[in-house]
């Protein structure tokens, strides 16, 4: 795998974990769905598996400064609190540059932990990963 850390399962399989956010369905208007990528990313890190969440489409709004603090569902913490926990656990956050342009979101409007990258990055991650998860 190109520059990615991998982990070996007890069965001897080498895997790389990417929690990929398919934001055509997930954005701040669907708060119940926003928690899963972060929780599963933290779970992967606890299992010594690399985890990256790639935001695209409307999902890039989640990493806009000040937005995640306003999203809360039931008794759960805010999405910002879950996001901060995931970042502290080592989950990487990537944001599709073309999506930010489409939504007229300046890269400086994103939280500093989120790295804005080109669309080809997603293709490379998918091709290099042994497993992906889409939300």
Task: Summarize, please.
The chain is an alpha/beta fold and 135 residues long. It has a single domain, classed as 3-Layer(aba) Sandwich (Hypothetical Protein Ychn, Chain: A), CATH 3.40.1260.10.
As for the CATH topology, it is: Hypothetical Protein Ychn, Chain: A
- Number of E-type strands: 7
Q: Quote the distance from N terminus to C terminus.
A: 24 Å
What's the CATH superfamily, by name?
Answer: DsrEFH-like
Radius of gyration: 14 Å
Description:
There is one protein chain. The protein is an alpha/beta fold. The chain has a single domain, classed as DsrEFH-like (Hypothetical Protein Ychn, Chain: A, 3-Layer(aba) Sandwich), CATH 3.40.1260.10. It contains four helices and seven strands; from the N terminus they run βββαβαβαβαβ. β1 and β2 form a beta hairpin. α1 runs parallel beside α2. The longest helix has 16 residues.
Blueprint (SSEs and pairs):
Elements: E1 7-8, E2 14-15, E3 17-20, H1 31-46, E4 52-55, H2 79-89, E5 92-96, H3 97-102, E6 114-117, H4 119-128, E7 131-134
Question: Top keywords for this entry?
Answer:
two-stranded antiparallel sheet; alpha/beta; 7 strands; 135 residues; single chain; Hypothetical Protein Ychn, Chain: A; 4 helices
């Amino acid at each position: 795998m190109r520059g990615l850390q991998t982990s070996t399962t007890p069965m001897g399989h080498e895997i790389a974990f990417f929690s990929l956010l398919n934001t055509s369905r997930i954005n701040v208007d669907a708060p119940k769905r926003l928690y899963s990528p972060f929780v599963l990313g933290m779970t992967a890190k606890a299992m010594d598996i690399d985890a990256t969440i790639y935001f695209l489409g409307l999902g890039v709004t989640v990493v806009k400064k000040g937005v995640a603090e306003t999203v809360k569902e039931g008794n759960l913490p805010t999405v910002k609190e879950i996001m901060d926990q995931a970042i502290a656990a080592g989950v990487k956050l990537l944001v599709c540059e073309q999506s930010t342009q489409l939504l007229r979101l300046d890269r400086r409007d994103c939280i500093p932990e989120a790295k804005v990258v080109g669309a080809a990055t997603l293709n490379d991650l998918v091709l290099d990963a042994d497993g992906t998860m889409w939300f």
